[in-house]
Inverse folding.
């Protein structure tokens, strides 16, 4: 019952990420995507910035294409994301809206977007990255929490559930792989939502890992404590970046082996937790990975090279399954 997913590249907002859309232009990319994966996550195509070019318009073209493609290939889809502090359009962030207007904007957005794909999206990242590293809510940066208060998060879950009662609704974040102040904050927050009867169904960790840090050995323990709350869990954006130290500025053999080991351990943690049934890597080829654009001097984070050669990490995942 477990699905193995990848992000579907396209629409990166970083200026050096402006290659032609792989989803429409790279047949090799598509062949791997259809053959190797059972779940797809739009990397950018369901974010506010992409769906909402202006206040009165929805642009569903890219998102629709992914959902239709997944259906044609017997894959499920993870929706990403509805309430976030990042990749919101300027008209929203810089607009002069009253609290009431903002609330209506979010409610209508969630109702429209989740409703459009009702019954066709397995899991939704309803709220993304709402906590800071210190375990406080990201109140300053997140327009919704700042303007409407933390109660808006519960409302977002309620609206999403009304629009699609069959979708599993998730809290999703990075640096919450292990047990730490941030994941502790999620644990308390999730407990609170569940006590209030809010339709929260899952907690997921993005798992953007780096060889510069030890593997979060308590990943499994962390997933398990959410499992014991009655929530499903998921790994949603796994990649393992590195500063290459091999010849010609490329990864060394040792680094590739270590990377494979991180991928294996992440998959094993998920396999060992009953309610962890969705395991997604944030792209499968270095050709389209977001990592070099966002992390200085780091890259090579996915399981295939930029020429679609399978790295040790690819085989490590296969063997572990
Ligand atoms: C990233 C995409 O991969 C990039 O293409 C885009 O330019 C920025 O966003 N956490 C998330 C994802 O939840 O949405 C982010 O995706 C990576 C970090």
């Amino acid at each position: 019952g477990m699905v193995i997913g990848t992000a579907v590249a396209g629409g990166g907002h970083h200026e050096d990420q402006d290659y032609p859309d792989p989803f429409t232009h790279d047949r090799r990319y598509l062949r791997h995507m259809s053959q190797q994966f059972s779940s797809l996550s739009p990397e950018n195509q369901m974010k506010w910035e992409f769906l909402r070019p202006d206040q009165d318009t929805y642009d569903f073209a890219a998102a629709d294409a992914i959902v239709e493609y997944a259906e044609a290939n017997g894959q499920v889809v993870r929706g990403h994301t509805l309430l976030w502090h990042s990749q919101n359009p300027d008209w929203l962030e810089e607009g002069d809206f009253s609290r009431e207007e903002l609330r209506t904007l979010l409610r209508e957005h969630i109702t429209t977007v989740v409703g459009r794909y009702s019954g066709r999206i397995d899991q939704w990242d309803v709220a993304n990255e709402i906590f800071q590293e210190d375990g406080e809510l990201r109140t300053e940066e997140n327009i919704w929490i700042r303007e409407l208060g933390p109660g808006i998060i519960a409302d977002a879950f309620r609206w999403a559930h009304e629009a699609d009662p069959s979708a599993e609704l998730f809290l999703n974040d990075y640096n919450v792989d292990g047990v730490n102040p941030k994941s502790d904050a999620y644990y308390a927050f999730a407990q609170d939502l569940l006590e209030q009867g809010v339709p929260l169904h899952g907690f997921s960790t993005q798992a953007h890992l780096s060889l510069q840090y030890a593997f979060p050995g308590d990943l499994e323990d962390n997933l398990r404590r959410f499992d014991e709350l009655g929530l499903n869990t998921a790994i949603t954006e796994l990649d393992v970046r590195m500063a290459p130290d091999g010849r010609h500025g490329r990864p060394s053999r040792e680094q590739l082996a270590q990377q494979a080991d991180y991928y294996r351990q992440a998959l094993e943690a998920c396999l060992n937790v009953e309610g962890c049934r969705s395991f997604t890597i944030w792209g499968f080829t270095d050709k389209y990975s977001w990592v070099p654009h966002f992390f200085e001097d780091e890259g090579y984070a996915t399981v295939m090279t930029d020429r679609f050669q399978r790295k040790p990490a690819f085989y490590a995942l296969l063997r572990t399954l």
The two ends are 12 Å apart (CA to CA). Strands lie at 3-8, 39-42, 76-83, 123-128, 168-173, 202-205, 208-210, 232-241, 276-281.
